[in-house]
Amino acid sequence: MTSERHVLVVEDDPDIAGLICRRLRSLGLSSSHVSTGEAAVLVVRGDPPQLVLLDLLLPGINGWDVIEAIRSDPATATIPVIVTTMLDRDGFEHLDVQGFLVKPFRASDLERSITQVLSLPEAAT
Questions:
Q1: How many CB atoms sit inside 10 A of residue 43's CB?
Q2: Has residue 91 got a pLDDT over 90?
Q3: What is the CATH number of the domain that holds 96?
Q4: Which domain holds residue 103?
Q5: Which residues are registered as beta bridge partners of 51?
């Protein structure tokens, strides 16, 4: 597997972001990390990734606003988004996202969501 697929990790907790980025590398994916919603929108518009892993509770503009910004721009509207949050999924079914992981989540759940969204081969466990 090559690292031509790039994932943007939007997470304000550096420890969680580090764990996610290491897991992405183990899947053969490249990644970058930003910690604010504003930075996420700038990165997505400037160099669109193949996937965004997005925390909803961010400093500055929140994850809901990031989703809205991504979906409202025709150049980025089809980028898949997987939400990673401490919030319960109830009430968020309306979000235009391809996955929803409630923290703390298992690495295997993260991998499963990513492989499904990006159509990667299943990782051997």
A1: 17
A2: no
A3: 3.40.50.2300
A4: 6-118
A5: 7
